[in-house]
Amino acid sequence: MEMTCVNSLSSFIHHGMIFVPLGVRPVFEDLVEIDQVHGGSPWCSGTIAALDGSRLPSELELRIARCQGEDFARAAKRLI
To answer: Which terms in the Gene Ontology molecular function aspect does this entry carry (predicted)?
Structure first.
C-alpha cells in the first residue's frame, strides 16, 4: 500500500492536490506497534482487510486515522 501512495503522489500534486502526510511525530508509538497486525505508515493511515471485507479497522488503526484527519482539518482551516 505504501508504494501505491508514493507512486500516486506526483500525479496528484501535479493536478493541484494538497498532500497532508501523516508523518511519524504524532503517532510514532502506534506506527511501531508490533504486538498486533495493523495498517498505516508515515504516508497515510490505513487498515488491513480480509479478502471478503469482514475485518473491520482495529482501535489502533482508527486512532492513527483520527490523528491524520485532525492534521488534515488543521491544514484545511489554514487555507480558508
So the answer is: NAD(P)H dehydrogenase (quinone) activity
